[in-house]
Amino acid sequence: MDKLVIEGGNPLSGTIRIHGAKNAALPILAASLLAEDTVTIRNVPRLLDIDVMLDILRDLGCKARYDGRSVVVDTSLAASSHIPESLMRQMRSSVFLTGPLLARFGEVQLYQPGGCAIGERKIDLHLRGLAALGADIQEKGSRIVCRARELRGAEVILDFPSVGATENIMMAAVKAKGRTTIIGAAREPEIQDLQAFLNHIGAQVRGAGTDTITIDGVAAFHGGDFAIIPDRIVSGTVLVAAAATRGDVTIEGAQPAHLTSLIHVLRRAGVQIEVGSDIMKISASARPKAVERVVTSPYPAFPTDLQAQVMTLLALSDGVSLMKETIFEGRFKHVDELCRMGADIRVDLNNAFIRGVPVLYGSTVEATDLRAGAALVIAGLAAQGRTVVEQVHHIDRGYERIEDMFRLLGGDIVRESNERLAAHHAR
What we know:
Elements: E1 3-7, E2 13-17, H1 22-31, E3 38-42, H2 48-59, E4 63-67, E5 70-74, H3 85-88, H4 98-105, E6 107-111, H5 124-132, E7 136-140, E8 143-147, E9 155-157, H6 163-173, E10 179-183, H7 189-200, E11 204-206, E12 212-216, E13 224-227, H8 232-244, E14 248-252, H9 260-268, E15 272-275, E16 279-283, E17 294-295, H10 307-315, E18 320-324, H11 334-340, E19 344-348, E20 351-355, E21 364-366, H12 370-382, E22 386-390, H13 393-396, H14 402-408, E23 412-416, H15 418-426
Parallel strand pairs: 2-14, 3-13, 9-10, 17-18, 21-22
Antiparallel strand pairs: 1-22, 1-23, 3-5, 4-5, 6-8, 7-8, 10-12, 11-12, 14-16, 15-16, 18-20, 19-20
């Protein structure tokens, strides 16, 4: 298993361009099944989750390959609607295939998905939405079978703005007979990107970015060539890392409007940020200030996917901060690892009370999930001494060679296998 070895203390500096959004690419890859044609998706990151999605598409009968920074998918030969359990358990986002497979084949067999262990993420809202469109759903242990002779437009009300449920219902409804209205829809930029892709291949969807999305079903779709948005969480991770290391970094090709809540928190922490139409410049020469209260909530509020990273910054701040997690109850697993590095954090249910310390110290820590891993990399970059981050495969699910990204900005970070690391310590 690979590990990241970080010699901390170097302020990050330089210019970087962020890769495409994993959380946009995955549902768009799933939606390519609707086209029954060849689709080219540009700006796709090379990530473990993307690889799993491509493996599933191939298992269903599609042709899928990388072409530089693009993925070319030919879904015309897809013949199966059975998602393999072994692949589905590797990645929660495999559930995105439910809607398009149901729309194309009239049935789909799947299993409870896997992914990061950050708390309960049931797919009830997905299934309830598909049932509203006319699907018959049978659950047999971990196996789920959905069938629909004909999907029919309906009013679907979500009692929580679930991103995955919103996207799955959208992908099923584009081929349903009549009009579907999703009320209480999630508003994330990735949903707006999915709407843009669906319309690009022939759908009629409007309202993404608001809490009400309207879909008029159509009979057929066609191929296309589509570029996905940059990854706002990766962008945010770089911004936080620059602030934590008291660096000076410019991000090009960004969409600052997707990170308004983070920019607000960073400015409250005393960080200097300049924002243009597609550029962000951050400089932080002094110790950050504590931020009295940060609360995660659905977009456009502060994202749960940046909670761990910002907690690392607040752990180095001057004063006491409160981080409240309202989305996932299991998303404070990085706290013990940060405390191992000298952080002073106390957790009470879904609240983390963070008393800032002047410095963190290098240690051996474990990435318990994707964003926790990114937070520990930031801590290692900012800390005194050497940090070893284990279980890097979690990080690889959402960051394309995170060590290369930070090394480009002057970070002293390398990836080592167990064998190389053992040889290094033996010297």
